[in-house]
Specification:
Family: Belongs to the diacylglycerol/lipid kinase family.
Largest sheet: 15 strands, mixed
CATH topology of the largest domain: Tumour Suppressor Smad4
Distance between the termini: 15 Å
Helix content: 25-40%
Number of helices: 9
Pfam family, one: YegS_C
Bound molecules: adenosine-5'-triphosphate
CATH architecture of the largest domain: Sandwich
InterPro entries: ATP-NAD_kinase_N, Diacylglycerol/lipid_kinase, Diacylglycerol_kinase_cat_dom, Lipid_Phosphate_FormReg, NAD/diacylglycerol_kinase_sf, YegS/DAGK_C
Keywords: ATP-binding, Kinase, Lipid biosynthesis, Lipid metabolism, Magnesium, Metal-binding, Nucleotide-binding, Phospholipid biosynthesis, Phospholipid metabolism, Transferase
Organism: Sutcliffiella horikoshii
Number of strands: 17
Shape: globular
Structural class: alpha+beta
């Protein structure tokens, strides 16, 4: 049986609209399912905390990357597969995996039943599926989630605009840090680091292809470091990242590895799949082939 988890509030109400469409489609196809609706942050994880693996063969999220992130943390190394009907504002996991954005396409992919095994990275005990970021992107996520303008813009259906506004706000106040990075026992030192992305898959931030070659089945993580760059130049490089063309820029360094330790000289805000995490250290590893995903 499918357990469907719906975040009605995802994507400024897109979750509810897409669920209504999904409900009709599932009825037409005579699919048996159990459905639950999230009511607060953290609820999706709680709903499947004690999942009966003999009864439920797949969890389907109708929601965004934040809801998926909670579910991933409960499904790692389980028999239960994950399906997604992308209804968030960013939908970067769907973009990376080529999941259709329309309800019918996304559901028919799930109902076909063929899954792949995907790697799941972790930083300390926190798993994530797409990208973890330290620095500038973490700060933008933190400021946006706290800001009153987000709530107001969400009500007006302009939620994405709050990210853009905060990118500018953070750009002119952010203080870069010096950072030591250990990748598979090789040691690197960077000055004036703006951001470090540690990626299982290519996309974050609603379509930014920060690590174009990241592959969720190679047992490794791709790392992008942006350092030693002026504020105005960063503003110029930023749009290139929507097509992955930033990687040739002289202030951008790309690596790949399975075990990564990041030590900044001053604290850097960390986000995993867009959710802020309060870790003391940033030691990354990969659980290979740890999640079944449609
Ligand atoms: N009923 C609810 N009311 C408020 N917040 C909720 C509710 N249900 C879940 N949440 C929380 O809302 C946050 C955002 O949800 P989600 O990621 O699904 O959508 P999104 O932010 O619009 O999409 P994306 O992450 O793709 O940009 C998550 O952290 C989730 O835990």
């Amino acid at each position: 049986m499918y357990h469907i988890i719906v975040n009605k509030m995802a994507g400024n109400g897109k979750g509810l609209r897409m669920w209504k469409e999904a409900e009709k489609y599932l009825e037409e196809k005579n699919v048996t399912y159990l459905v639950s609706f999230t009511e607060y942050a953290g609820h999706a994880g709680e709903l499947i905390e004690n999942i009966d693996e003999n009864l439920i063969h797949a969890v389907v999220v109708v929601g965004g990357d934040g809801t998926i992130h909670e579910v991933v943390n409960k499904l790692v190394h389980k028999k239960v597969a994950l399906g997604i009907v992308p209804a968030g504002s960013g939908n970067d996991l769907a973009r990376s995996l080529g999941v259709p954005f329309a309800v019918e396409g996304a559901l028919s992919r799930i109902l076909k039943g063929s899954y792949q095994l995907i790697d799941v990275p972790k930083v300390e005990e926190e798993h994530y599926i797409s990208i973890a970021g330290l620095g500038f992107d973490g700060k933008v996520a933190e400021v946006t989630n706290r800001s009153r303008s987000k709530r107001l813009l969400n009500k007006l259906g302009l939620g994405d605009l709050s990210y853009v506004l905060n990118i500018f706000r953070v750009l002119f106040t952010y203080q870069p840090s010096d950072v030591s990075i250990e990748v598979d026992e090789k040691f690197y030192k960077f000055q004036d680091v703006w951001l470090i992305a540690v990626a299982n898959l290519p996309y974050y931030g609603g379509g930014i292809m920060i690590c174009p070659d990241a592959c969720g089945t190679d047992g490794e993580l791709d790392i992008c470091v942006v350092s030693g760059i002026g504020r105005w130049e960063l503003l110029f490089v930023f749009p290139l990242a929507f097509r992955g063309r930033h990687i040739k820029h002289r202030n951008v360094t790309m690596f790949r590895g399975a075990s990564i330790k990041i030590s900044p000289s001053s604290s850097m805000v960390m986000q995993c799949d867009g959710e802020i995490v309060q870790n003391k250290t940033a030691d990354f590893s990969v659980d290979e082939n740890a999640l079944k995903i449609f």
